[in-house]
Amino acid sequence: MNINNICCIGAGYVGGPTMAVIAQKNPKINVTVVDINRNRIDLWNSKDLSKLPIFEPGLDKVIIETRGKNLFFSNEIEKSIKEAEMIFISVNTPTKTYGDGKGMAADLTYVELCARKIAEVSKSDKIVVEKSTLPVKTAAAIKNILDETGSGVKFEILSNPEFLAEGTAMRDLIVPDRVLIGGGQDKSGLKAIKSLVDIYSSWVPSENILTTNLWSSELSKLVANAFLAQRISSINSISELCESTGADVDEVAKAIGMDSRIGSKFLKTSVGFGGSCFQKDILNLVYISKSLGLNKVADYWSQVIIFNNHQRERFAKNILKTLYNTVAGKKICFFGWAFKKNTNDTRESAAIYVADLLIDEKAIINVYDPKVSENKIHEDLNYLGKRSDKQNAELINIKNNPYEASKDSHAIAILTEWDEFIAYDWIKIFNSMKKPAFIFDGRNLLDKEKIEKIGFIYQGIGKH
Ligand code: NAD
Ligand code: UGA
Description:
Blueprint: E1 5-9, H1 15-25, E2 30-34, H2 38-44, H3 59-66, E3 71-74, H4 77-83, E4 86-89, H5 109-121, E5 126-130, H6 138-147, E6 155-159, H7 169-174, E7 179-183, H8 187-201, E8 209-213, H9 214-245, H10 249-257, H11 278-291, H12 295-322, E9 331-335, H13 350-360, E10 364-368, H14 374-383, H15 389-395, E11 396-398, H16 402-406, E12 411-414, H17 426-432, E13 438-441, H18 448-454, E14 457-459
Parallel strand pairs: 1-2, 1-4, 2-3, 4-5, 5-6, 7-8, 9-10, 9-12, 10-11, 12-13, 13-14
Antiparallel strand pairs: 6-7
Helix pairs in contact: 1-3, 5-6, 9-11, 9-12, 11-12, 12-13
The structure holds nicotinamide-adenine-dinucleotide (NAD) and uridine-5'-diphosphate-glucuronic acid.
Uridine-5'-diphosphate-glucuronic acid is lined by residues 133, 162-166, 225, 228, 232, 266-268, 270, 273-278, 339-340.
């Protein structure tokens, strides 16, 4: 099929950057990104690029180059679906918060709504591409919905999961390790696969474009995230062992990472992984395994999440223990709230859970994050639903600069590995704090020796 018009449903962290790059690399194809959230679309269209709804280094340049030429952001969902030959579904697939599978299964409401809308308004044949991360076999459900319209329109379903990481999304999209495309293995399925391969071939070398059957592609996405998260929980478990033995987890990570069979990436110990996907995708994998009666498989992967929760909790408990078993009325300054550096995304950030545990102990939390808004921080805590919004607001203060945040605090907790934290005037920070002044470095970001020379009592993760 000749592709002249692409529609992407969902203008989020994936839909926006992914379509911007597809448009940049395929100037002859019109790409329209649609969303039910009007405010989000308005922000994508804002002249002031600092107002784009997501912060991602390098994204603004690609937006300037393409927006209004062959990349459009719109609320006209039906029109855009009708005009497109290829439709990407890139909506959110959060963990279910109700009913069967609550707390584990993926909530496919939004995906199903997209499929129903496509079925309702399509007047010509379409290729529908799953860009969202979905449970294996979802393509069969989408196909069922689409084929029940009786309109005679033919739909071909492809799976094209996204592997970008926030903060490095543009690089990940422009030089991907691989692009994965799954589809039907019959004649029309293979033809559809080729149409999508052609789009990526504009910039991705053919050896990096991998084609598979639908189920392998859907499952590979869940498995990739599970393997990445597993490495973090593995090294975090070793961090606890290091603290009890005098070994240094960064030294251990380096020593094992130099074995080319293990590799050095994703071995950075931390206060725990966050982000919208690792936890939800592993829970989904566990749910699928349980549904198939594969309880040992489910137990194996559950442990990755169990350990991550433990790592966050033990970080908070260590602050409590070190500050003489009480933090009531004490100010703890948080440097960082985002789930990793170079993003304003806070979904499932360890900072939220650490703050929550310390607020339970009646600590006062001052937060400084270079990119996260005050509203977002309040929203994140309120979303946990443990206290009233007013009670949360009384115990959390959001500051505009690090020196204000650290003033009069008993301790600093580093929750995000923003580069700028290293360059702060740590002597000035030390002088403004209560003594003894503690630093709990949840990212092993600072130089322990330098920091201790100033007078701080420093504790990294997995270090003595
Ligand atoms: P997001 O929440 O940032 O964006 C999803 C968008 O879809 C929202 O703007 C929402 O308003 C819109 N939407 C929902 N239902 C809609 C509907 N019926 N019609 C039109 N718009 C609708 O989510 P995201 O982070 O972009 O993630 C999207 C998918 O990609 C998820 O399945 C996620 O697991 C996967 N993924 C995310 C990342 C990441 O780094 N964030 C990376 C790889 C894969
Ligand atoms: C992750 C994957 O890396 C992407 O390939 C995938 O597409 C994406 O999830 C998704 O499906 O949403 P992302 O969550 O954006 O990307 O960011 P990561 O770089 O993977 O970091 C996730 C969390 O792990 C962060 O909190 C980070 O600080 C933490 N992390 C990462 C560590 O604690 N140690 C490490 O060594 C690496």
